[in-house]
Amino acid sequence: MKKHSKILDILFTVAFPVAVWLLMEVLCLIFKQKHVISTMLDVKTIIRNAGIAAVTAFALSFNLKEGRFDLSLGAQRMAGTIIGGLIAMALGLSGLWLLLFAIAFGFLFGFLTGIAFIGLRVPPMVLGVGMALIWEVVPYLVSGGKGLNLFGVEGMTVLTESWFQILVVVVMAVLVFLLMNYTRLGYETKAVQGSQLIARNSGINIFRHAVECYALAGGLVAIAGVLDVSYTTQMAANLGNTSNGVVTANMFVMILGGYIGERTDSSVGIITAAFTLQIFKYGLSLLELSDPLISVINMLVFIGFLVFQANRHKVSLAKARKARIALAQKFKAERAAA
Q1: How far apart are CA 285 and CA 263, in angstroms?
Q2: Residues 6 or more apart from 252 whose CB is under 8 A from it?
Q3: Cα–Cα distance measured from residue 72 to residue 131, given in angstroms and rounded to the nearest whole number
Q4: Per residue in 19-28, pLDDT tens?
Q5: Is the alpha carbon torsion for 323, 326, 332, 333 positive or negative?
Q6: Cβ contacts of residue 174 below 8 Å, gap of 6+?
């Protein structure tokens, strides 16, 4: 891997949201005579949506980077948020306690999903579908099918404050950074990502590690649920495996964040990617495009980025091949001259 100066790494990271903002600013000015960001409401909207996307991407990354796609994360998000919210409301507690209860139940549901994974040994995607159907039923039964409604509930206003949402996302990013770089979990994660077989043969308990990743993902995705319901004030208790769309929609954030994070850190990369894509989506909405069209454009950009990721190494290989050929020709010419 090439070494870059820290200044170049910072510029590379900042270039993504700045470039996208400039692009959308020009398009909005040309077609709608509007600025992408013109009021504090615009800033708060982008911060809130980027925060939700970043935390969800953190949750996805714990398992997906190791080859486990947990399709029950959306159900864990819904179950943790609804049950945590109902308990906090029943006890007359504040929004901070709602967040803590949601995290606790998210950890619990993630932990149980991990236990099921190592116990049943079925493919993660198959397990995820089954566990999603189970976890969707839990908040439905607990809430009597009503879900969670925070409208008019006292003590929940802190959840809507931009400074609180920023604080939550920053704390999560710092914790993920510390976990991935200075703990046993981080060491084991890097080893398992390299080779699960080698990691196991080197003494790593890959089953315990998998359970830890599932539990952490459940807790993180519950935070995203709380940030979401703090704005919408409601979360329905849906059935029929319909809860995971809000999670998989942020896969682009995780993958783009991984690419940006190659020059800095994955935590920084995911947050940068979240803001970049939220500015892009917000600009498209200001152009008054329909939601389905915005989704299509976003997916086309995602596919294009995946194609780039799959082929970007070919340029380096071509340069290396050209250098080897030039060196061989030079060596041949020197031998001929001798």
Answers
A1: 31
A2: 273, 277, 298, 301, 302, 305
A3: 6
A4: 999 999 999 9
A5: negative
A6: 267
Q: What share of the chain is helix, strand, coil (3-state, %, to 5)?
A: 80, 0, 20
Strand (E) or helix (H) holding 234: strand 234-235
Q: What is the DSSP string of 92-112?
A: T--HHHHHHHHHHHHHHHHHH
**Measuring CA to CA, how many Å separate 287 from each of 14, 24, 207, 274, 278?**
24, 9, 48, 20, 14
Question: Which positions ≥6 away from 204 have C-beta within 8 Å?
Answer: 188, 191, 192
What DSSP line would sit under 261-290, residue for residue? TTSS-HHHHHHHHHHHHHHHHHHHHHTT--
| Beta-bridge mates of residue 149 | 234
**One-character DSSP codes across 58-77:** HHHHHHHTTT---TTHHHHH
Residue type, 160: T
- Amino acid in the structure at residue 135: W
pLDDT at position 3, please?
56
- How many whole angstroms from its chain centre is CA 168? 15
Q: What separation in angstroms does the CA of 8 have from each of 11, 254, 265, 316? A: 5, 22, 14, 19
Distance separating alpha carbons of residues 110 and 112, to the nearest angstrom: 5
Closest CA to 251 of 68, 57, 65: 57
Query: Taking the CB of residue 77, how many other CB atoms lie within 10 A of it?
Result: 33
The three-class DSSP label of residue 161 is coil
What are 31-77's pLDDT values in tens digits?
A: 888 888 888 888 888 888 888 888 889 888 888 888 888 888 889 99
Q: Record the pTM.
A: 0.83
Q: How far apart are CA 227 and CA 332, in angstroms?
A: 66
Phi, psi of 21 (to 5 degrees): -60, -45
User: In angstroms, what is the C-alpha Rg of the chain?
Assistant: 23
CA neighbor of 81 nearest in space, from 215, 253, 245, 230 = 230
- Comparing 110 with 230, which gets the higher pLDDT? 110
